[in-house]
Each structure stands twice: as structure tokens, then as C-alpha cells.
Amino acid sequence: MELRHLSYFIAVAEERHFTRAAQRVHVAQSGLSTAIRTLERELGAELFIRNTRSVELTDAGRALLSEARHTVGAAEAARDAVAAVQGVVTGRLAIGTLQCLGGLDVTALLTRFHRAHPGVELRLRQSGSTDLLDQVRGGDLDVAFVSIPPTEPAGAALRPLSAEPLLLACAPDHSLAAEPVVRLTDLKEETFVDFNPGWITRDLTDRVLAAEGIERRVALEANDVHFLLDLVSERFGVALVPTSFRDKRTRARFVPLADPAPIWELAVATPAGRRPSAAARAFLADPALTPTGAA
């Protein structure tokens, strides 16, 4: 079994298309197809269900994908380690991030890293924390900035970076907008807007309100911070959001919650049980990625 065959397999599995996969790995489509057939013969199983428009993984293909990523990743890490000893950081670095990270400036992080290590190919994906953690576990991401879940996630190691209280976000003319502080029990009759289920900030709000015996109604769901605040501003509902959201350009008003206010925590996630690549180690060494630097 050759590493390049596993690399071709990963490309087809991720692109779901032989032509796009061939373009991605810079090989003729006929050569890629031959490599996949060779791999299937060696394993004694079909890896893809092929049709005229796309390809889908078989059960055997899904079983191979995670191991193939680990194997290819380990080989790349070995090459990177040798290059790092020679003073050069190369390879590829896949980073995932939430939309808003409080005081952590991801653009500045990427800029510093790219200037210091121009030989590293950067990839960036933006999503919710649950999805990002799944991608870290599966080997799609080397590093991800996520909300800390209530329980330690299997397959991912978390380094806490910062913590900030939740605030109430409401419309400028809402009855609570002028209050100096709001208790959670004041929200029992309110309609909410929130992020989609599975976002850890949504889960945090669900938990803290349920602990107060509040069965809330979420009228509208969003996966964009600015859209969420627009909905709040137009009286579609209130929301509980991290303190850093008040720095956004919005008409929404923000009111502190009574102590002890629920805390939203940010962390950087890496795959558990695997040594980070040289590129990932260099990225994680940035002074901003410490609890002090991120605060």
C-alpha cells in the first residue's frame, strides 16, 4: 500500500468527485482512477459507490478514511520534523475557528505565522464548535478555536485560552434595556433568538436556563453573529451572548447578568494522542495562544 494511493483516496473521499480530486493532487484522472482500483484490489473491498455525478464512500471506505488520514498525516509530520531540524517549517496547516473569539485576533495570528513561515500552506474553515471538534478528531483540522463543551471531548485535547461572562442582548426599546443588571429569572417570559442546536454557546444557554427552571422558546435560529444581533435589534427575541459581542457594530443593547453570571470559555483544540506537526507546533507557540495572551 503506497502513501500516494492513500493521498489520492483521501482527495476523492473529500471532493466526492474524481475530476476535482485529480486536479487537487495534480495527477491525470486516469492515473488517479488506476491508483484507487489498485488500492481496492489490495484491500479486497470497494471503497466508493460511483455514479455519473459523484462518488460516495462505502462502509469500507469510511472505515479506511480516518486511518488513511492518520497515516498520511504521520508521514507528513515526519518530513516536517526533518525540515524543522534544518530550520525550515513546511507542510500544510488546517485551522478551524468560530466566527467571534473575544480578544483573540485570528487574522493577526495567521498574518504573523504566514510571514514567519511562508512555506506552510494554510487552510482555514469556519464553523460551530461541535463540527470543529469532529473535524479535529477526524484529522481534517490540525488546530481549532472552539467553545469549551461541558465534558472533555473524546479524541481532542483542549488548551483553555480565555473566559468571559454572558450578557443579555436585547432591542434598544426593550423593557430590560435600561436595567443595570438582569437576573436569569427575569427572562422566563421572553422569546429568544439563538444559534443552531449543536453550537456550544446555544447548549450553554440551554443548560443555564434549564437550571433556573426556565423552558424557553427559541423563535429564530442563526449561524451568523451579526445576523443574530440584527434579529435581536428588531425585537424578534433576546439572546444570551459572550461579553465580547458588545464590541460589534449593532443597535442591540447589552445588559450584565446578575452574579454568578454564566461563563463562556474559549480553547484551542488539537487531536489527542498525536504529536502536532512542526507547523502546528510553530503556530501554537504564538504568545497570543496562552491564557494571558488571549485575555
Q: How does this model look, in words?
A:
The chain has ten helices and eleven strands. The mean pLDDT is 88. Among the domains are: 1-88, Winged helix-like DNA-binding domain superfamily/Winged helix DNA-binding domain (Arc Repressor Mutant, subunit A, Orthogonal Bundle); 164-263, D-Maltodextrin-Binding Protein, domain 2 (3-Layer(aba) Sandwich). By secondary structure, the chain is an alpha/beta fold.
What is the count of DSSP helices, taking H or I runs of 4+ residues? Answer: 10
* CATH overall fold name of one domain: D-Maltodextrin-Binding Protein, domain 2
The low-pLDDT segments are: none
| Helix/strand class | alpha/beta
**SS elements, strand count:** 11
What does the largest sheet look like? 7 strands, mixed
Helix content class: 25-40%
CATH arch. level architecture of one domain: 3-Layer(aba) Sandwich
What is the 3D form? elongated
Q: Strand content of the residues, in percent?
A: 15-25%
pLDDT average, as an integer? 88
What is the string of SSEs from the N terminus onward? Answer: HHHEEHEHEHEEEHEHEEEHH
Terminal residue distance: 47 Å
- CATH secondary-structure class of one domain: Alpha Beta
Radius of gyration: 23 Å
